[in-house]
Model the fold of this input.
Amino acid sequence: MSAIAGIYQLLGEPLGVESGRRIMEELQRYPADDVHTWQSERVFLGCHAQWITPESVDEELPFYDRERALAITADAIIDNRAELFEKLGVPREDRLSMPDSLLIVLAYDRWGQDAPRHLVGDFAFILWDERNGILFGARDFSGSRTLYYHRSAQALSFCTTIGPLLALPGTDKQPNEQWIADYLAIPITVDSIDCASTVYKSIEQLPPAHSFSVIDGRISLSQFCEIRPNAGAIRFKSDEEYEEAFREVFTTAVNDCSRTRLQLGSQLSGGLDSSSVVSFAVRSLKRESKRLHTFSYYPVDDFEDFTASRNRMADERPFIRTIVDHVGNIEPHYLNFPDKSPLSEVDDWLELLEMPYKYYENTYWLKGIFEEARKHGVGVVLNGQRGNWSISWGHTIDYQARLIRQFRWMQFAKEFVLFCRNHGARKSSLLGQVSLMTFPGIARMISPKKTSPSLIDPQFAKRSGVFERMEPYGPSLWGSQLQNAYDVRDDLYKRLFYWNINGASETRLSLKYGVWGRDPTNDLRVLRFCLSLPDDQFVRDGVDRRLIRRATEGYLPNKVRFNRRLRGVQGADGVHRMTPEWNGFITEVQQLIKEPHAKQYLNTAQLKASLDKLRGAPRADHVFDEDFRLLMRALIFNRFMKRTFEGR
Done:
């Protein structure tokens, strides 16, 4: 709900006021409902507050609790309030109005540095324990809120965004070449394997699921949360009991994520994840006599869908309208942003993120949804981004491969036959796919190795040692099609570097537009529940994503629940949108190849080869082409380097 800042004076003399004032001035670029600071002899805390929840209105932040000698500034929405009220013995008359920051103070007073283990929600906070001389803070398990910091000989300085820290006197604004090497070498959207680093050498970030403590001038980091699949830990007697338990935990998560004093909105596609979020959210809103605003992206009108032959659909409105009609109590907004494209949004996103980015495909409609939500007075926009790895988990082919590896031959035979019958699949073709997933290591050895075009300059790669650093992570960083879905999921929860991307964009979008993106499918309680269920709750009888299909009976139309043939694909019209800008795009890439940052960091020989392949009129299907992806990422990177470090 806020941009926060903190400064801890390392030297003996009192902390001056200038640095804190400078940080708060830099945060004025974002809208705020209230701005306050607090300062002691050694510590400064600041808050640029946005009031999203009912309890946040007129919340005092930073807040100093004289009784406990604890001061806090917090960027937080805590979801498990009811649980914490009971554990902490909060009087019932105080619960309705108690702000989340005070709950964090009470949690720290009870559990000390173990407090973050007890918190569920999106949060980053800084707390000064005056009696014990400890500066303490934490970032939630998936890093949905960011917290950066800068170390100097005089002070440790913290902030939600990077710019205010760079504005402090004496901050060295040099590029971090190790981060840059990771960014350019990793072909998937991960920016770096070091989730504590940033593109700036002098700026670090608190990793997801970590807390920090500063004692006697020394900062130490500690991971407070780990998520591990534990299939079968939860056992019920019937499918109906699993469904009932799921609906209970998911209803709680959706309701908690929906807490706002403003209007409630949700992204809505034609798939199971976002539609499940919408259907559960509407049931609660009906009791409050409110309507849910839904925001759905669709391609520009003259786009011809080339994905249809691949059982995909770029325009999901036929499914979305069915959902809206079935669920009811929805104010739908269908948006196609005809004047926007991946190229037109680059400068805005670089200014927003303060770093280069790779996920250009969805930037124009994602930002557009937040702009539209603000116009309609929406404070929270729900989404189902993590649903594939939680509520709608269940991959039939990978499940069959697991059955083979577990020597469960009879169960495999049954699943194999039923899948072929349900999907009309050829047995020989399916058996080949299952075999690849059963023995991916062997498959990779005998299959021709596919080499993707590389963005990083070979000499820079050698000098930085990036490929040696990446070697232990294997397919985690290369996105191999032969990687079993169970391994992908394990990596997702084990490797914290996956989580930084969403947090950086979600935090910046919320600050710019005063709208929070919340994801109930990523709720810690939902994740732990889903990861503890037996596999056959997600895949059985040849049916994938089985739990969510069953649990949403009555919530969603059968057209959506039982759809196994068509999958939505966002951003398919990206290159088509760029048609008027295509010549300018080609010219810019031609020019960047000659520029200093390109020669120093980018694989210019590969850029020239990729450029040659894309000359001429643009084709819509170039949007998923590796050569186009390489050129777009090079353009984004080069623009960032020029605007940030040129003339340094």
